[in-house]
């Protein structure tokens, strides 16, 4: 009995290097959606990202490796950048498990399923609702003038750089602090304030973009007699709310998208309705 205990005590600890963790990060960043499917969503991307780490921890052909691959082929879906720490925490748990910690598959999958939703909500709000509108507010004016470098190229470069830096920092922090660190952030008082600020800022920026780039006016004139006329645009609509027509079109587009209409369908509706109203002389650019 003592010999068995001595063998277990002398078992060499498996330690992941920073290079291993970073390699998993790059795999996840570029291939999280490479085999996206509606049964397991990002599960194959998870397996591809974690497989080098799992091979180092459990060995290529071991039963433990097969079990690890099986548990990570379960349903998984999150926002890739802000949801990345879920997988880096998973790596930390797999490392502890490989070194004898009492961690089973249910604990690891419980961590993934418990955090993938909240972090996805945070990521979608900050990326799509805040960062992208802000970048568009800087680059759209240049793109409208035909400046390719300061328009689409600058947007793509800035977005990629900011996204990669934040995603990398969060990934490494998730591995280093583990589930306790992320849980503390999610339950702390600062996160609701950040989310509220981001949502408000995103809405303000989107409103400014709509007012600047959705250019719709009404050329309708109502004759009042004695050579006088009433302009629907300047004398009525602008007196009510400046930029009312762009606001209406923006809100209608939002409503149609919330009704689960495809973006191409929404675009087609806008083109057809806009063409008909323009042909009747009700609206113009």
How helical, in percent, are the residues?
over 70%
Strand content: under 5%
Rg over C-alpha atoms, rounded to the nearest angstrom: 27 Å
Mean pLDDT: 81
Largest sheet: 2 strands, antiparallel
Number of helices: 11
Low-confidence stretches: 1-10
Q: Could you spell the SSE succession in H and E letters? A: HHHHHHHHEEHHH
Query: By helix and strand content, what is the structural category?
Result: mainly alpha
Strand order of the largest sheet: 1-2
Give the terminus-to-terminus CA distance: 87 Å
Q: Report the strand count.
A: 2
Shape: elongated
Write the layout of secondary structure elements.
Elements: H1 2-9, H2 18-31, H3 43-58, H4 63-71, H5 84-98, H6 105-144, H7 149-187, H8 190-213, E1 221-225, E2 228-231, H9 232-240, H10 244-258, H11 263-279
Antiparallel strand pairs: 1-2
Question: How would you describe this protein?
Answer:
By secondary structure, the protein is mostly helical. The chain has helices at 2-9, 18-31, 43-58, 63-71, 84-98, 105-144, 149-187, 190-213, 232-240, 244-258, 263-279; strands spanning 221-225, 228-231. The longest helix has 40 residues, at 105-144.
